[in-house]
Amino acid sequence: MIEATGNPDAIPVALELARPRGRVIILGSPRGSQQ
């Protein structure tokens, strides 16, 4: 899965969808505080 939106809310969703043996590539550049 490639996440390139820059939306920080999409990252946990991408990780959940790729489990347990998938790979996630994060290309977005979110701004602001992250949890």
Report on the architecture of this protein:
- The mean pLDDT is 81.
- The chain has one helix at residues 10-18, and strands at residues 2-3, 25-26.
- Helix 1 (10-18) links the parallel strand 1 (2-3) and strand 2 (25-26).
- The chain has 35 residues and is of the alpha+beta class.
- Helix content is 26%, strand content 11%.
- It has one domain.
- The chain is elongated, with a radius of gyration of 10 Å.
- Strands 1-2 form a two-stranded parallel ribbon.
- The protein has one helix and two strands.
Number of domains: 1
Helix content: 25-40%
Q: Within the largest sheet, what's the order of strands? A: 1-2
Report on the biggest sheet: 2 strands, parallel
Structural class: alpha+beta
Residue runs with pLDDT of under 50 for 5 or more positions: none
SSE sequence, one letter per element: EHE
Overall pLDDT confidence? 81
Tell me the number of strands: 2
Beta-strand content bin: 5-15%
Q: How big is the Rg?
A: 10 Å
Net shape: elongated
Continuous helix count: 1
Distance between the termini: 21 Å
Quick take:
By secondary structure, the chain is α+β, with helices and mostly antiparallel strands. It has one domain. It contains one helix and two strands.
Any key phrases for this structure?
single chain, 35 residues, alpha+beta, two-stranded parallel ribbon, 2 strands, 26% helix, 11% strand
